[in-house]
C-alpha cells in the first residue's frame, strides 16, 4: 500500500516502499454494565474509548522524510549536504505534530472504497538499522490517531464522499 502523511497539506509525504507489511489496528475499550438480576452476565456494554494506528516498516531512507516524521527533528542543509538532528533535551507532545494520514492499497483491483484515513495522526518512529549485505534499513513508524475537531478518528472508504442531510 501507499501511505501519505499530511494529506491535503502543503507538502504531503508519500511512502511507497515498505517491507514486512503495513498493519492497521483499530481497537475499542469497553466496560460491562452489570445488574443484580443478571448475575455476572452484562446487561449492556459501554464503549469507553477507541484507538487506531497504522504501523509502517519503511524501506525508504530519505533524510527529508525522516525529519518530517520524527517529532521535533531538525533537517540541517548545507548546499548538497544534509543531516537530521534529533534532540533529547525536552519532552515532546505528539498531538501538535498530528496530520491527516491515508493508507491506499496498491492492488490493481483496489478502489477509493479501500482507502483508510486517520483524520489526525502523529508519527512515532523507531529505528533499528542493521548494516549488513542481506538486510535493508527499516524505519518503523507508527501513526497514532487522535480525535480531530469534528470528533473524527478513522474513516474507511472514499474520502471524497459527503454526508447527505
- Distance between the first and last residues' Cα: 33 Å
Mean pLDDT: 92
Q: List low-pLDDT spans.
A: none
Main beta-sheet annotation:
8 strands, antiparallel
Q: Beta-strand level of the residues, as a percent range?
A: 35-45%
Question: How many strand units?
Answer: 10
Shape call: globular
Overall SS class: mainly beta
Rg, Å, rounded: 20 Å
Helix count from the secondary structure assignment: 1
Strand and helix order: EEEEHEEEEEE
Into which percent range does the helicity of residues fall? under 10%
Task: Offer a quick outline of the entry.
It is built from one helix and ten strands, in the order ββββαββββββ. It is mainly beta.
How would you describe the overall organization of this protein?
With 165 residues, this protein is mostly beta strands. 4% of the residues lie in helices and 45% in strands. It contains one helix and ten strands; from the N terminus they run ββββαββββββ. The strands form two sheets. Strands 1, 2, 3, 4, 7, 8, 9 and 10 form an eight-stranded antiparallel sheet that branches. A hairpin with a 7-residue loop joins β3 and β4. The longest helix is centred in the middle third of the chain and has 7 residues, at 63-69. It is globular.
